[in-house]
């Protein structure tokens, strides 16, 4: 599926350069146990709380990408993406929040983990300070890696997997279409970029990929602030 999505040169290069990192993410304990349904409720609970925090920052970064987009169609794409991150995907978390007894007060009182804080701060800083092309390089891994991990888990998860709602969302056709649109936008932006700018796009993509790994790993290992 990754090869089908990689329609343009930048995305092909980025996927190939970071393939080892993706394999590490795909096979890491969090995702392996999510796939077979053995992931502990406490680990998944930590993950969904942090992911809900993350989506707020991700929505802001998408809104900034919309503001920087050079074409009206891309403005609409990223503005809708920001809405989806805040409204639609948080509805998924809302179902799990109810199941796990997490109310608004509990969520608000839970601080961002070091991994989540780092990812959100870096993503928003990139969206503010960097040119449009680099912003897309930073945003793409969250879309693409989630889709590929979702498809991989969907292929091996049993129907009675307790995390089926999460699996179905990220392996679904609607999310797949959003990923394909993000890849197309990034390849479009890279097409006219100078070699130096493309290098910055690649650096952003690689760093975001590392942060994706760190986010899941942090939830699995319960990495918190020392003080």
UniProtKB/TrEMBL annotation:
Give the organism, scientific name. Answer: Methylorubrum extorquens DSM 13060
Which intervals of the chain form a coiled coil? Answer: none
Classification via Pfam families: TENA_THI-4
Please name the PANTHER family in this protein's record: BIFUNCTIONAL TH2 PROTEIN (PTHR43198), SI:CH1073-67J19.1-RELATED (PTHR43198:SF2)
Where in the numbering of this chain does the Thiaminase-2/PQQC domain appear? 29-221
State the name under which the record lists this protein.
Answer: Transcriptional activator, TenA family
Q: Which Gene3D superfamilies match?
A: Heme oxygenase-like
GO cellular-component terms in the record? cytosol
**Which InterPro entries does this one have?**
Haem_Oase-like_multi-hlx, Thiaminase-2/PQQC, Thiamine_Salvage_TenA
């Amino acid at each position: 599926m990754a090869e089908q999505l990689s329609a343009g040169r930048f995305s092909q290069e980025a996927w190939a350069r970071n393939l080892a990192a993706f394999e590490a993410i795909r096979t890491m304990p969090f995702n392996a146990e999510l796939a077979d349904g053995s992931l502990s409720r406490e680990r998944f609970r930590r993950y969904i709380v942090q992911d809900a925090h993350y989506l707020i920052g991700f929505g802001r970064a998408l809104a900034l990408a919309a503001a920087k987009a050079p074409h009206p169609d891309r403005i609409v794409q990223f503005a809708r993406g920001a809405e989806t991150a805040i409204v639609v995907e948080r509805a998924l978390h809302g179902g799990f929040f109810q199941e796990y007894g997490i109310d608004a007060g509990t969520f608000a009182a839970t601080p961002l983990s070091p991994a989540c804080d780092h990812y959100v701060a870096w993503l928003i800083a990139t969206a503010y300070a960097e040119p449009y092309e680099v912003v897309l390089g930073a945003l793409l891994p969250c879309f693409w890696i989630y889709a590929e991990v979702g498809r991989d888990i969907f292929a091996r998860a049993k129907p009675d997997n307790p995390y089926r709602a999460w699996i179905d969302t990220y392996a679904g056709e609607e999310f797949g279409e959003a990923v394909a649109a993000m890849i197309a936008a990034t390849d479009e932006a890279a097409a006219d970029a100078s070699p130096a700018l493309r290098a910055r796009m690649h650096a952003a993509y690689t760093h975001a990929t590392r942060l994706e790994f760190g986010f899941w790993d942090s939830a699995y290992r319960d990495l918190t602030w020392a003080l």
